[in-house]
Amino acid sequence: MKYAFWVLLISLSCQVHLYAQRTSNRIPVTDVSGNNSQGGQRGANQREIAPDTFGIFQFQVNNPNEETPFSDSLLANFHQFDPTRQGRFDYANLGILGSAHQPIVYQPRKRGGLDLGFHQYDLYYITGETMPFYRLERPYTNLRFIQGTQQSDTYLSAIFSRNFANGLNFVVDYRRIAQKSESSQYPNQQNEQTGVASGFWYHSPGGRYDGFLTYAANTIRNEDNGGVYLLPVTGGEFSTPASAEVFLNDGQTRYALREGMYTHFYRFGGQLDTTGRSRRAFTLNHQISWQHNTYKYADDFDLADTAFFNWYPDLLTDVRGVRYLIDQKQLENSVRLSTYRLTSGRRSDTRQQRDLFEVGLTHRYNKLYQEPVDSVVNNLMLTGKLTLRLGERLLLEGDGFFGLLDQVGDYRVTGALGLDLGRAGRFRFTLNNQLYTPTVLQERFIVTQQTVWQQDLKKTLETNLGATYALPRWQITLGGNYHLLNEFIYFDTTGQVRQTGVPLSILQLFAQKNFSFGPFHLANTLVFQQASDEVLRLPTLFGKHSLYYAGHWFKVLDVQMGIDLRYTTRYRADYYNPVTGQFNLQDRAETPFYPNADVYVSLKVSRFRFFLKFENATTWIDDQQRLFLSAYAPWPAASMRFGVNWRMID
After folding, report:
1. Residue 258 in contact with residue 291, Cβ under 8 Å?
2. By residue range, what is the domain housing residue 177?
3. 206: nearest Cα among 410, 338, 36, 50
């Protein structure tokens, strides 16, 4: 299948030149009235429409009327290829690209329906709901390749979208992380993550019907060493990471997630009035999906594993080793009714909704197999969504659900209010309140067909409040969050599940400020956070700073070069337990304050980009120290990495 995918991708890419010479067969770009705005000249005009005249608009299947315009962005964060470093705040991983991760700065997770509890690889997944679709006029290709210290350390991604005849569009999104170097990584740490999602979008000639057929496959193949307890001696013959001592010599994780989904919409109304404004539209939406997910872990016991199982003796239920299998099959059906008005009916504008009111009903049938136990869980949820734009200044958003059947009483209410005061700045206020059932793993865990724990836990009530103020002309953002959790569930130092009987609160304050001195820039992010109880351990301070030069050379070359620095204050970071697939508390090691630096240079010529990055450069200054974001999970010593990106239109 892997080779078939590449044959398909190459063949489609090779058709780009021929496609431009034929009569246009792209999706008719209709205005909201359903009329073809290009008339009979659409084939002749295809080559005449410049990319910056029409553009590329990205959206997701659950709401095709909320688009994001694609822009050929500058080099600001091109070198930040690791998904754990691409957000506002970093995630803590195990020191290697593609490894398990959790937030350094506490973030709530939206809950709803059955949750198995495996979220340590979420940033690497592509699903039918998160994969991008594109409204475009010309074929679009985006290729990226990143090379590590050896040829076996790579990160490859490819996005391709093009229109076909009769209102059909095809898109494929492929990503693959492979970290298989033996000399530059610690023992039993190789990993491979592959995610691919493809889809067809049918847009009817009148614009009233849209159908999306998607398929997504995510595969995780990781070696899990349980952490490094003895780093190699620096200098000499045995100074490579491969000579380190680890807790588990042959632990292996295998996850396979497969999903097929069909989403379709039928629209009533929404035509343009005599003034050119879009009228109110009404939409009937149905979505059906099928998922088959398997989660496996295996580790044959040997004497080298003794230290790990001395810490977690309850997990060794069989002297031959550890093994478990969890298999989930899920059938979901959703029906939604909505009404909305678009902010603009012009085809060249980004589609956005002036308002949206939506109600729906979702049913999920879950068949669960925890070797050797079978169970069935039915979720029935009443859902709702609200969007209200009052001019250009005020935006109100909200969504939520209420659970029935097997998890009756679960609910979530989420709201956000955005206020734009122009030169005086922008405010954003957020609220999230949810009551949710414990995950499957928290309630029951079976290893080698023996029950390690089975508990009757209470539901967790969580409330999150947030406020952000941004003043773009001063390049400053200030914000704060307050989280309150009742009946918080966590994994203690023995790897067992525990539930607090007292409320847990978390206070967070953050600031972002950028300074510019001609071509030189200094970007800063600083977060303060404090939890009321030791059952949730967070660094008091997390900071990341970037000092860089940005210039335009020889009238064609964009250049950015600089240094990135990040750190946390001293604290007892969580330990990733590969058997449970969870981060649990630990008291044996303390993560020190250690500023870690990366040095990089990025170049851009037209649609081609290149970067060269010297990672973990601080170890080049002091080779006795390492960056730890998770307990017993050091980052390797300084190394080089390069990457290229090529975007093609037509």
Report:
1. yes
2. 2-133+140-649
3. 36
Residue 51 banded pLDDT, cuts 50, 70, 90:
very low
Q: Residue 495's closest CA among 371, 322, 315, 321?
A: 315
Q: Can you name the residues that pair with 275 across neighbouring β-strands?
A: none
Which is nearest to 75 in space by CA: 520, 513, 551?
Answer: 551
229: CATH: 2.40.170.20
What is the distance, to the nearest Å, from the Cα of residue 262 to the centroid of all Cα atoms in its chain? 22
The H or E element containing residue 619 is helix 618-621
Q: How many domains does the chain have?
A: 1
Residue 395: strand, helix, or coil? strand
Task: Identify residue 332 by its one-letter amino acid code.
Answer: E
Measuring CA to CA, how many Å separate 162 from each of 10, 57, 133? 13, 13, 10
Q: What is the pTM of this model?
A: 0.88
pLDDT (tens digit per residue) in 256-283: 999 999 999 999 987 777 676 788 999 9
Task: Tell me how crowded residue 183 is: count the other CB atoms within 10 A of its CB.
Answer: 11
Lookup: tokens for 54: 């029409």
Please state the length of the chain: 650
Q: Which residue has the higher pLDDT, 385 or 34?
A: 385
Read off the tokens for 48: 């005449």
- Of the ranges 156-160, 233-237, 559-563, which one carries the lowest mean pLDDT score? 233-237
3-state secondary structure of 93: coil
CB atoms within 10 A of CB 282: 13
Q: For residue 494, give Cα distances in angstroms to 248, 312, 577, 586.
A: 17, 6, 10, 8
- Diameter over CA atoms, the chain: 81
Strand partners, 322: 299
Amino acid at 135: R
Rounded CA separation 242/93 (Å) = 19
- How far apart are alpha carbons 183 and 482 in whole angstroms? 44
E-assigned strand segments in 442-540? 444-447, 450-454, 460-471, 476-486, 489-491, 497-499, 504-517, 520-531
Please name which of 444, 556, 531 lies closest in space to residue 481, comparing C-alpha atoms.
531
**Sign of the four-CA dihedral 106, 112, 117, 121:** negative
